Amino acid sequence: MCELLGMSANVPTDICFSFSGLMQRGGGTGPHRDGWGIAFYEGRGCRTFHDPSPSVDSEIARLVRNYPIKSHIVVSHIREGNIGEVCLPNTHPFQRELWGQIWTFAHNGQVDRFNDLPLSCYRPVGTTDSEHIFCWLLGEIRENFPTAPPEKTFSEFIADRCRVIGERGVFNMLMSDSRALYGYCSTKMCWITRRAPFGVAHLKDADMTVDFYEVTTPNDIVTVIATDPLTDNETWTKVHLGETIAFQDGLQIP
Amino acid sequence: MCELLGMSANVPTDICFSFSGLMQRGGGTGPHRDGWGIAFYEGRGCRTFHDPSPSVDSEIARLVRNYPIKSHIVVSHIREGNIGEVCLPNTHPFQRELWGQIWTFAHNGQVDRFNDLPLSCYRPVGTTDSEHIFCWLLGEIRENFPTAPPEKTFSEFIADRCRVIGERGVFNMLMSDSRALYGYCSTKMCWITRRAPFGVAHLKDADMTVDFYEVTTPNDIVTVIATDPLTDNETWTKVHLGETIAFQDGLQIP
Known about the structure:
Two copies of one chain form a homodimer. Helix content of chain A is 21%, strand content 33%. Chain A is built from five helices and 15 strands. Chain A has helices at residues 16-24, 59-66, 129-144, 151-166, 212-215, and strands spanning 3-13, 36-42, 45-51, 71-78, 94-98, 101-108, 172-176, 181-185, 190-195, 200-202, 209-211, 221-226, 237-238, 243-248, 251-252. In chain A, helix 1 (16-24) packs antiparallel against helix 2. The longest helix of chain A is centred in the middle third of the chain and has 16 residues, at 129-144. Chain A is globular and about 50 Å long. The first copy, chain A, starts with a strand and ends with a strand.
């Protein structure tokens, strides 16, 4: 199994604190030694960092942890590989372009018969079930929506397609189209929204505390999604099995 | 004008030395303060670093300069913007997927009437002439070749399409499909192939010397392509105006 980390915020926000916890699970407090990756959206643009080395040892992970890249959406993943060898093309998150937007996808789990899902416009570069599923999903979206549909129509479409994949195995995923952050939970996912009045949070995986009051303004709204809670003194909301969630500017889209 | 840097090698090779020279031109010895980016291919996989800040000040550029990422193809760009504001979505190199391969594109120059070039499958995310041209070019390739054609057919096709764009303005470009590195020269481009017996090279833009004999093995073949020669004690080959060049495993494809 792998671990996912996502963020949606209404102001450009760094994810150094949460990422510090996650990267410990990449070969430190957790077994996810098979690479890691992260995508930071800044407006329509996106920058990514990928490394097939364990995040706990990674030079690049150290940069990401220490250098605050401010972003409104983040999608990150640390991998404990199952399908597909450990190499750069199999390192999440995966990206493609649709509607002139950059789409990012990361998956935790293992899906059977993924090769049956027919591909059209997008083809995988690596050999993971995850990238194949992403290419199928984006092909489905492209075929059904030549341009971006209303948000509600789109969320329902995503929920429907995710259930199709969820029936084939373990499928926890995070995806963004640069405007919203989507999640689907097949076995394990949780989230927390932080807003004023901000308090102190303490990481589970490293002895590290942050007082969000000191690093935010009163209007900031920041939601973090993770496979397992990253802090041990806050209440995280569990996503129901089979549920799709969507966030924009830090707030859940109903 | 912007500066391009490309590498093709027959063994995974780092580009720290050449990149050290290039990044000085990003706001140090050169005026290219409008961001920079680099793509490193490792087999079919590719990792990229993008930063809209000047490379000479960039934390991420420091990492790329100091942390040897070994790669067989590199495409890099530092920008002095003309069309399109300075922001992440306008930062080269641009990437898309075709045939299950990651394609990377970087451009130096300015092209008129780029909006006339019709788009099909690929759409730009930012507002540069460069990304529009890349989307057009990749759409043309996709339409003409459902799968990868023989190398010679493909090189001729690229040369033909590049000439079409070259007629509209300044178009120096580097592109890779993860197997080969292509270049087109409309005004300025040069290259050098380093192989045994290796010698000492000295950077033009920084007081830095490397003895390639000490960091290579006798079978290594490494070609570097740049807008202007990066060293002042070696002979670089100028690309003819209107010429397309292609390299694979460090060697020029005839």
